[in-house]
Amino acid sequence: MSDPTKSVLERLAEFLTPQPNSPTERRQELIETLREAQSEGLIDADALSMIEGVFQVGQLSARDILVPRAQIDWIDINLSLSAIIKSVITAAHSRFPVFEGSKDNVIGILLAKDLLRHSTEDDFQVRDWLRPAVFIPESKRLSVLLRDFKDNRNHLAIVVDEYSGVAGIITIEDVLEQIVGDIEDEHDIDEEADNIISLDNGDIRVKGITELEQFNETLGTHFADENIETVAGLVIQHLGRVPKMGERVQIGSVEFEVQRADPRQIHILLARQLPKKTD
Fold it and tell me: Which of 115, 146, 180 is the last residue of a domain?
């Protein structure tokens, strides 16, 4: 237990010298001390959030934040070139796992820039432009993975389960977002008008910060709580925690699927109206 008579700076200094406490205990004490430092104005909230994110990365593994297999935008090497180009443009990612025969048989990674730059060449073959795929186990620590991404200048890894099947993918952006929060790129929805997007399959893509009033107007729902203003807040209150990516939760007649989240907040959800039960 920290000595309350000591200043925050004195307690922070103690972490630079050996202590008998276990690493877990000392980590928690450090976080509590840093939170007090933030409350006293010694560090700002953003700095505290990133420090906590660094600790979080040290505790998480690939399975905790991977993009699930079902949500991957795959490229089938046996598709026609025009179909592949259409898929790449529609998905608007920079990298795509490419499989042959089975999605457990990933043969490489296709970079959109390679495809769009060279596809007009007479002898162009997608297979010739595939980059080697990097495979990692679900148990790989994010701190180790981040170092590997940096050392190898790689941006995407295929996550495999204990049976060597593809469980999902993980990118360097996914790891960094655990530290700095959501990193919006040119393909993220960031305009107010795009808070809610109707998809071709009938699902609704919803930004977590979407106000409940706007959500209710779009779906004809009646979610209301004087203490909650956003869709993310509604889901978190219902569960009592921040859900993981890929997790599903039913609230009333709507099923929410978390498409993008970090340990602190929900960024993107899929919402779908469930059919009414008949007697």
Answer: 180
pLDDT at 56: 73
For the sheet containing 166-171, what is the strand order?
A: 67-68, 166-171, 156-160, 135-137
Q: In whole numbers, what is the pLDDT of the chain averaged over residues?
A: 83
> Is the separation of the CB atoms in 77 and 126 below 8 Å?
yes
Q: Are 243 and 232 in contact (CB under 8 A)?
A: no
pLDDT, residue 13, reads 53
| Three-point CA angle 175, 181, 183, nearest 5° | 80
Specify if 278 maps to a domain.
no
180 touches 53 (CB < 8 A):
yes
Is 58 within the bounds of a domain?
no
Q: Which residue has the higher pLDDT, 132 or 180?
A: 132
Residues 28 and 110 in one domain: no
User: What total of structural domains would you count in the chain?
Assistant: 3
